[in-house]
Specification:
mainly alpha, single chain, 2 helices
């Protein structure tokens, strides 16, 4: 049972890293698109919404990985 818990924690950390990289990549993409004079506002809005969704997933996963101190 302990191995299963450790595997879940490890996979959670890997997923967290993937989400952070995707969030950072979206941030870079949005910054690059904003430099263009003829930007597609709908695309920018969609990317920003995706970035916020990623941030929510990151926060939720971080919360799950933090041990409950009251236990």
């Amino acid at each position: 049972m302990t191995a299963s818990i450790e595997t879940n924690i490890f996979s959670g950390r890997v997923r967290l890293k993937e989400l952070r990289v995707a969030h950072r990549d979206l941030d870079s993409t949005i910054a690059e698109l904003n430099k263009n004079l003829h930007i597609d506002q709908i695309r920018i809005t969609r990317l920003k919404k995706r970035k916020l969704a990623l941030k929510d997933m990151i926060m939720r996963l971080e919360s799950e990985l933090i041990p409950n101190l009251n236990a």
